[in-house]
Amino acid sequence: VEQQIAPDKVVREANLRYEKRRERLHVRRLDDFQFVGRVRLIKIDVEFMELGVILGGRRTIKRDRPIIWVENEPYFDDPPNRTLVDTMHDAFGYVCKSVARLELVCAPGKPDPKNPGGRLVQDEAALPRGFKRVVSHLTGEVKDVHLWRALSEVDPDFARKIE
Predict the structure, then answer these.
(1) What is the three-class DSSP state of 50?
(2) In angstroms, what CA-CA distances link 54 with 15, 51, 138?
(3) Considering 16, 27, 68, 161, which has the largest number of Cβ atoms within 10 A of its Cβ?
(4) What is the C-alpha R_g of the chain?
(5) Are strands 67-71 and 121-122 parallel, antiparallel or unpaired?
(6) Alpha-carbon distance 87 to 55, whole Å?
(7) Model confidence over 123-161: pLDDT tens digits?
(8) Between the CA of residue 154 and those of 79, 99, 103, 138, what are the distances in Å?
(9) Using CA atoms, how far apart are residues 4 and 92, in angstroms rounded to an integer?
(10) For the segment 6-50, what is each residue's pLDDT rounded down to a tens digit?
């Protein structure tokens, strides 16, 4: 992590701290996993290592075209660090949009009919039916119902499926 953000900057700006002890981790690329069936959603929350996860999943992302929900704090800096968003667009044809503080949803893009040859726009058809409803609940935009009800509105059989 130190290659991406300096320890003093983390303490000052990201509300994180480094511990003096070091640990050895075994890291596997997303593409090293053998998934059964199509990957439809990837959730990434890895504290400044998001781009590494994306690049380690190139084959999976290009093959399955999943929705990617990613916490990406640098995008919300002033000025924004667009590295992840631009990589998603240029390397994968994805468009990322903010859905909550520090959270982006990236989905396959489509050509913008208003700007042929320009940047892609998010393809709303790429998002599952009801996705916006559940996201609006999770982000606090909608506070009138419990998550259980929001999920049931999206899928009337939801309650039966998990019993």
Answers:
(1) helix
(2) 24, 5, 23
(3) 68
(4) 18
(5) unpaired
(6) 9
(7) 877 877 677 767 776 667 766 666 666 666 666 665 555
(8) 37, 18, 22, 14
(9) 22
(10) 666 666 666 666 677 778 888 899 999 999 889 988 999 988 889
